[in-house]
Amino acid sequence: MSRPRGRPAQGAGVNRESILAAALELLEEGDGKGLSMRALAARLGVTPMSLYHHVQDHASLLRALSDRIYGEVMDGQEEGVAPLEVIRGLLCRYHDAVGRHPQLTLAIFSEPAAFAGVSRQITDHLTAQLAAITSEPVLWRDILVDHAHGSGLALASARGRPGEAPMLSERYRQALDRLLARLAP
Amino acid sequence: MSRPRGRPAQGAGVNRESILAAALELLEEGDGKGLSMRALAARLGVTPMSLYHHVQDHASLLRALSDRIYGEVMDGQEEGVAPLEVIRGLLCRYHDAVGRHPQLTLAIFSEPAAFAGVSRQITDHLTAQLAAITSEPVLWRDILVDHAHGSGLALASARGRPGEAPMLSERYRQALDRLLARLAP
DNA sequence: ACCTGAACACCGTTCAAGT
DNA sequence: ACCTGAACACCGTTCAAGT
User: Fold this and answer.
1) What is the rounded CA–CA span in Å between residue B36 and residue B27?
2) What is the 3-state composition of chain B as percent helix, strand, coil, each rounded to the nearest 5?
3) So what's the pLDDT on residue A68?
4) Is the pLDDT of residue A65 over 70?
5) Mean pLDDT in chain A?
6) Confidence at residue A9, expressed as pLDDT on a 0 to 100 scale
7) Which positions in strand D are less than 7 Å from the protein's CB atoms?
8) What is the pLDDT of residues B100-109, one digit of tens each?
9) How far apart are CA B99 and CA B165, in angstroms?
10) Chain A window 164-183: which residues touch B at a Cβ cutoff of 8 Å?
11) Phi, psi (5° rounding) for residue B108?
């Protein structure tokens, strides 16, 4: 019944990659409380303490997930696009990321340090682009980012009322269009 | 050493009111993880299970706190004010409530049901007032509420970097002014 | 290097028992 | 009506021990 104490003969094969993937699943498939070190270990068929050889702790696990998901927002950026379109693209991709991972977003707000890294890159880029079309780039960057966050949270709260999420995404695009139109008339 | 089993001779005097007050303290004085049924009971000098005679469970405790804090936003409403000023007042009071209780706001987003009650009142009132000054009241209600939420969360995240919160409140007022100015030109 | 069980200090909540 | 201790099923994390 009881397995041997040490490392099993054939490496069970838990690595950072498999841990992150399983963690994201566990986080999003429930009400956001499903991701625990113990549940994660169980899903991977391993002891909880085994995880601590690959991630420092629970908070750093969240940080790693944040880097992965929100990092994609900065990638896939097109060349030679007008500032207004850069801004639009960036915010839409950001909002989509929130929509695909609402529980991660929620979890990250409770662990602000997890967010600082990637968030800084996005907001800096946004400010630079806004400077081309408005005389108050910082003010409008805050407005647009805060609005994206708030709308993302509405998305997160709409979980459990399925089918509503796509509608909210469409609404975000509408709202963003109104804001951008008012920004630089 | 061990106290008697049943109800103590002199009623220790835990009631719904004292529970809610202590819960709010516990929630806001730390990193948002300080409010647990067990810690709450300890602070009140009582057994955890005693609390369950006054509140149904942890989630309903959060719901009660939400009703109390966000309920104030609808109160204290002035008579005979122009729609634009009603909107401004409502959103500022709402944002202030978030600023005074950031951890509650954060906790509530993870417990969406806790928010539904009061939130509905505020958004309905807001929509009605917006109808007087714009042809797209629902769209702008969403923009303004989402923005207030996002800005409130920035406030919540700024906890731990003290002194920054008042600055962010001032920034919210600035942002709101720009939005309202653009709304009905 | 990597996995293990045991342990410690926590959770929310149910239940039967006391006054 | 209200408070109790014991119990159950959970947490994150440390530590010493195994291979």
Assistant:
1) 9
2) 70, 0, 30
3) 94
4) yes
5) 88
6) 46
7) 1-6, 10-19
8) 898 998 888 8
9) 7
10) 171, 174-175, 178-179, 182-183
11) -70, -30
